[in-house]
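Subject — a protein and its fold
Fields — amino acid sequence, structure tokens
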Amino acid sequence: MTESYPSTSTAPSRRTTLRAAGGGALLLGLGLAGCRSAVSESGASADGAPAGGAGAEPRRGGTLTVAVNTDFTPSLLFAQSGQSLQHRLIYNTLTRYDEGLNPQPELATSWEYAKDGRSISLTLRTGVTFHDGRPFTADDVIFAVKNLQNPLRAAQLRATAAAVTGFEKRGDHQLVLKLSHPVNNLFDLFEFMIITDPGSVESAVTGKKLNGTGPFRLTEWSPGSGLSLTRNESYWQPGRPYLDGVELRVVPQADALLSSLRTGQSQLSFSVPGKNLAVVAATPELAISEYSTGGGAVYLGVNTTVAPLNDKTVRQALAWAIDRERILKQVLGGYGLASATPWPKSSPAFTEAGRTHYTHNPGKARELLRSAGHTRLDLPLLHINLPGDTAVAEAVQYDLKQIGVHVTLRPTDPATAQKNLISQNMPGLWTMSHGFAQVQPSTLAVSAYPFNEAKNTSKYRSAAYTKVVREAWTTSADGARANTLRQRITDTLLDEAFIIDLAIRGAVQVSARKLHGVTLNKFSYLNLDNAYLAG
């Protein structure tokens, strides 16, 4: 396969060891995936193999129960959110990244970019069928792209999909995508975009029928309780999956979720609050693993149309007021990286100067507020009504009170919060988590709802911001020019402070030690192709 445009950089290894478990909480909205696998604090790899020794031989059979703290939301099927975990169980994508940003085959087996970056030729996998038996063809890829272009769909990578303006079929398994202009994040789209059945897509977004090519078939969705999946016996990968089925069970209460893991009712979860991880670490049957390259970030969002938040001096005051290190230590249990910018260390956009641009300086924050004519502000702050999210909101509330900004917390259910984020219907302040900084940096500013240059949740608009983002998006991802453009985006984010990043955070996985082979993709899609339960 040839990829003459754009080139992709190889990121450092994304495997790190989890530090001793402490207080804190895993946030629902976090962009979970930042790596293919993780390493547990006990020295066991995230696939369950003991350090220094071979893992058990794969064993066929058994049903895996995954404890989640929020239910599947069908209307968000084509968006990345805290409800995206099951996507890769039912569907496939065209490609997947390895531990760096190097695309690997999935439903596309090879590809070749035109030298001018204005088209890409795809060879598609043969012998693939949907769960209803219909063969997968180039028409399904065409539909998938057009589906994301549909403004009625909630989907972050719509701008990248919209750059595809033509399709040339060369048989059922050869396809050329023609672009209106070069983009350097096309493989982000290919990993994000699930391949759905055109004939049943409207049933999919209501949860009635999810017809994909993935390793598991949907047998039942019980709203409020979870999803039941069974093995796809016609899966294109020979001998996979090993598991007979998967149950995603909704357990919103932290204590009940922990109990389900400790008693063996559940064998996997990414939703255990940090304050409970010490208990997990003391449970011999469970392992803790961290996807620690920064697949997501905790942030404070600011609605720039709400006075006096339309004044960037006030927004900068908020940024100086927050004690990021305390939030990292006390709320997130020390897992992650305190940061004023959205970029993980693995990103080519990361700089130490950007990460530490805003430190905890309440005196400077009060001075900025006074210079803007304020000594006290009263503002609402929306947050998701789950334990980890509430802890972050309360920490922000405390810090802002110290500079005379009094916030009233508005706990909101996860689905409503996500819909408010998408529809730009947020109050003056909100705390959530975002992803999209773990892939090509341009994707964050053209696709993530909080940062989208054309239409972001903060309602921040700037011709200069749009110009630099568009140029960064359409320029090769490597070289001095790319670095300059990424720095200009970072400088804008820090100066305008419409999104105030607090900490970079990956997923914390709690699993039964008998569970092997679990991975996540860059967009939080759970991959269980090679997962199995040892005897």
About this structure: Residues 2-37, 39-54 have pLDDT under 50 and may be disordered. The longest strand covers residues 377-384. The chain is about 25% helix and 20% strand. The two ends are 40 Å apart (CA to CA).
